[in-house]
Amino acid sequence: MNFSTYPFTVTDRFVRYAKIDTQSNPNSPTCPSTEKQKDLSRLLVEELKAMGITDAELDTHGYVYATIPANTSKQVPVICFCSHVDTSPDCSGTNVKPIIHQSYNGKDIILPNDTTQIIHFDEHPALAAQIGNDIVTADGTTLLGADNKAGVAEIMDAANYLMTHPEIKHGAIRILFTPDEEIGRGTDKVDVKKLGAQLAYTMDGETLGHIENETFSADGVSITIQGFPTHPGFAKNKMQHAIKVASEIINGLPKDKTPETTENKQPFIHPTSIQGGLEQVELKFIIRAFDTPTLLALEEELRQICIAVLTPYDKCTYTFKITEQYRNMREVLDTSRT
Ligand SMILES: [Zn+2]
């Protein structure tokens, strides 16, 4: 492949996509969780059509499907390139102002609109390999959303390249852009049959050349504690306080199975939100483990913590709800290897 004369569109695309607010919302029951994710998805369909990809479409759930048609008669599997349009609910995605730092010089990067936000060279070992390259950051007031608009822009530029370079022979390549990956629902409404790909590659990685063939298996757990409220003036030996019960559960979490104390393939239980008051508290967790038996064991461990904490509180009740999120793809890859 000769890229020397190809005017790469990936940076322009990335900046254009990053400015569109596509934050997902874990508390919304709809799919997509936020309508605004479709603002980007609609643009992607338009741009794909402009490349000559005539079947590009956005479905009602906010998924974009498109095909780079095969240009070889050789029998090859249909592959898919996939990425997600949403950005994390943890940090604002409104009014994103991407800044291109040309020919990075190896110094700390101070983000201009909040100068307390500094990307320190010595805290980010990956920066050393980027000296001389252009780096894109946010302005310090929002998320940039490179996760996963970098992946979206890469796939779009690859599609543009392949559509304008018919001398590169390939089979049919399906493109899939999903909503709601950040809230664990990215694959909920994928129509696998319609997608029709034997293999898929998610462009959502770390550094150049990095390939992952497995992930955590993931579940969500929601625990709702129903307390026994009374007037504080008449509370003695009566009141059973949902906030205090919840805090005992959090306190009872195993200290060696949290994101702060684990790395690589070590599993963890991670509280993500706490909401409520004296009468009722809802705790939300994500559970992550590389294999499903360990995942289920962690959920059982959390359930046992709940039971132990709740036992002395005879007037409190609780519910414990597990929501399956996704499974380590290796469990499937290992069985489908030919
Ligand atoms: Zn991502």
Description of the molecule:
- This protein has 338 residues and is an alpha+beta fold.
- The chain has two domains: 10-96 and 142-202, Zn peptidases (Aminopeptidase, 3-Layer(aba) Sandwich), CATH 3.40.630.10; 217-331, 2-Layer Sandwich (Alpha-Beta Plaits).
- It contains seven helices and 13 strands.
- The protein has a five-stranded mixed β-sheet, with helices on one face. A four-stranded antiparallel β-sheet has the order 11-12-10-13. It has a two-stranded antiparallel sheet with strand order 4-7.
- A hairpin with a 7-residue loop joins strand 5 (109-110) and strand 6.
- Helix 1 runs antiparallel to helix 3.
- It starts with 9 loop residues before the first helix and ends with a helix.
- 27% of the residues are buried.
- The mean pLDDT is 95.
- Bound molecules: zinc ion.
- Zinc ion is lined by residues 84, 147-148, 181, 204.
- The site of zinc ion has 5 residues, from helix 3.
Topology overview:
Blueprint lengths: L9 H9 L18 H14 L6 E2 L5 E5 L10 E6 L14 E3 L7 E2 L7 E2 L15 E3 L8 H19 L8 E6 L13 H4 L3 E4 L14 E10 L15 H10 L16 E9 L3 E10 L2 H19 L6 E10 L3 H7 L2
Bound molecules: zinc ion.
